UniProtKB/TrEMBL annotation:
SUPFAM superfamilies according to UniProt: MetI-like
UniProt-annotated location(s): Cell membrane
Topology within the bilayer: Multi-pass membrane protein
Residue ranges occupied by any ABC transmembrane type-1 domain in the UniProt entry: 56-240
Native source organism of the sequence: Bordetella genomosp. 13
Protein name: ABC transporter permease
Length: 251
C-alpha cells in the first residue's frame, strides 16, 4: 500500500515536471496552457485572499445536498424494485427515460422552475447521482445467495427480516460501490449545474474566468475540484471499510 502511494506521488511529480518543462521550452502562453507553477501561484493567491473559499463552500454544499437527495431516492427505489417484480416492470422504463435525457438540456427548465441559486443545481445533481445507487442496490439485492434465502424461509423469517438481516447485509459492498460512483457524479453534476445561471460555485468561477480569458484561474478552479473529489472519495473508502469491517470479522 505504501509503495503504491509512493509510486502514485512519483508519477504526479514526473507529470508536473514534464508539463512545466514543456510549457517553458515551447514558450507556450499562459493564456493557452499555464505552467503548473503559475496555476499553483494563482490557486494559492485565490485561497489566501479568500476569493475561492465561498465558491468551494457552495460547490461542496450542492454536491452533498444533491447526493443526499439522489442517494436516498436511489436506495429507496432500488429496494422497492428489488422487492417487487411488478414495480420493477412498471417503473423501470420511466427511470431509464429520466436518465437518458441530457441533464444539461434540462438546466434552463430547472432555473425556470426553481429560480436562480443553489436549488436548480441541487436538483440536477440529485438526478445525476440517483441512478448508480439505484442500479447497484437493485442488482446487489437480487444477487443474494439462493441457499441463504431458502434458509431464511425455512426459519420463518418475515420479508422485512429477510431484507434487513440478509439482503442488505449481503448487498452492502455493491451498494457502497454505487455510493462511490454517485459521489463522483454528484461533484460533476454540481459543477456542470453551476455553468447555467449560477453566480457562485467553482463552475461559475470557470465560466467567469473563461469570459475574462484568465486561463490560470480556470486551472486553479479545476485543481480545487480535483482536490475536493479526491478528498471525498477517500472519505467514502474509509466509511466503506468501517461499515464492512464487522461483516469481515463475523462472516
Amino acid at each position: 500500500m505504501a509503495a503504491a502511494r509512493v509510486l502514485a506521488a512519483a508519477l504526479l511529480v514526473v507529470l508536473l515536471v514534464a508539463w512545466e518543462l514543456t510549457v517553458q521550452r515551447a514558450g507556450i502562453s499562459a493564456l493557452v496552457l499555464p505552467a503548473p507553477t503559475v496555476v499553483a501561484r494563482t490557486l494559492w493567491n485565490s485561497l489566501a485572499t479568500g476569493y475561492l473559499w465561498p465558491h468551494i463552500g457552495t460547490t461542496v454544499a450542492e454536491m452533498l445536498l444533491g447526493l443526499a437527495m439522489g442517494g436516498a431516492a436511489g436506495l429507496a427505489i432500488g429496494v422497492l424494485l428489488a422487492e417487487s417484480a411488478l414495480l420493477d416492470r412498471v417503473l423501470k422504463p420511466y427511470v431509464i427515460v429520466s436518465q437518458v435525457v441530457p441533464k444539461l438540456a434540462l438546466a434552463p427548465l430547472f432555473v425556470l422552475w426553481f429560480g436562480f441559486g443553489m436549488m436548480p443545481t441541487i436538483v440536477m445533481t440529485a438526478l445525476i447521482c440517483f441512478f448508480p445507487l439505484m442500479e447497484n442496490t437493485l442488482t446487489s439485492l437480487r444477487q443474494v445467495d439462493p441457499n441463504s434465502l431458502q434458509l431464511f424461509r425455512m426459519l420463518g423469517a418475515s420479508r422485512a427480516q429477510t431484507l434487513l438481516r440478509l439482503k442488505l447485509r449481503a448487498g452492502l459492498p455493491g451498494i457502497l460501490a454505487g455510493l462511490r460512483v454517485a459521489l463522483v457524479l454528484a461533484l460533476v453534476g454540481a459543477v456542470v449545474g453551476e455553468f447555467i445561471g449560477a453566480s457562485r460555485g467553482l463552475g461559475a468561477v470557470i465560466i467567469a474566468a473563461q469570459g475574462m480569458m484568465d486561463t490560470p484561474l480556470m486551472f486553479a478552479a479545476l485543481t480545487a475540484i480535483a482536490a475536493i473529489g479526491l478528498l471525498f472519495y477517500q472519505g467514502t473508502l474509509m466509511l466503506e471499510r468501517r461499515l464492512l469491517r464487522p461483516y469481515a470479522d463475523h462472516p
